[in-house]
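Suppose you are handed a protein chain with no further information: no name, no annotation, nothing but its sequence. What can you learn? This example shows the usual starting point.
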Amino acid sequence: MKITSYEVLGKLPDLFTFDNGEKVKTLEDWEKRRKEIYKTAVELQYGEIPPKPEFLEIDPLASVSDERIRIFRIRTGTRKCPVAFTVYAHVPVGKGPFPAVIDGDLCYTCMQTPEISKKFTDHGIMLLKFNRCEIVPDTRDPKRTNNLYETYSDIQFGAIAAWAWGYSRVVDALEILGLADMSSITFTGLSRGGKTAMLAGVLDERASIVNPEATCAGSCSCYRIHMKALREDGSEGRSETLKDIINNFPDWFGPGMKAYEDDEASLPFDSHSLKALIAPRVFFDSQAESDIWSGPVNTYQTSLAALEVWKMYGKAENVLWYWRKGGHDHKPEDFDMLIEVIERETLGTPLKSEKFMKLPFDPPEPIFDWKAPFYG
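A reasonable first move is to predict its three-dimensional structure. Written in structure tokens, the prediction is:
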């Protein structure tokens, strides 16, 4: 990948400086600082977060192939105005509980492919798929009835927050069903689904591995970097900006982001802030070399900055990234890499692929000049 234009609008805000100017010195301080970061990286970016539901019920719908595929509907939210969505659980042969991967991208063709499910079940991993658009629709002027917007009409949140809420409800269902190894829950998704998986992983610490794929702006990229680069076919692309995403998908985010569309450098956070909220759990960012819209250098810069928090915990090995050839998609190779990460965590198997932690570009100078106050 050849970078043709690289503009840095400002340095990344210091994760270890409180809003009042004091410095983080201990892990106890960091827990307090996390709450400040949450206010901007989560609530400013995505709006208010829907609360835990009043109830959750599971309606079995079907079992296929000797219960290797279980289909059930989750009904949840409030008794006055419930929501419902369907989950497809692909269960491995054998006796559980099984490590579980949750993906809300059933609206994408790739997640409807049986070969993807088989990849996981052949490795003793359960895959649960749902269509996040059943929770709130992915339209620019969504109806506010018969979905989560109506359920929690008294708070203001974007679609990404609603979809992330759905991931947690699947985990709730797994706790009831007893199928999953609750110490090994992975959230994954592509593009807007990757944004969703990322936020869901921040909000729900029951996710031990958070694996967003190609999130572009509004999650793992960097608002403060505008870049252009050549794809593998020689064509030039550019990274998505805050203005792009706020104007094209206004229903995804909190209302406060509009004020920064022409002034990203004034944002009180950036994507490194969101990533840092996952520490010390496993964060695995999947990317593609020709997916310039996702901002390859942007994503690297924010991961490098967030890594300082994992270093503070003594868990630097829990930050992983990789780039494959190709463009914006969720490919079989991506799932193979995720399976390696899961098996490292569950079986202690060393990572095999040489693509982990490799870059398809020469690393630029970091756009931050601070570091962790200590290293664990």
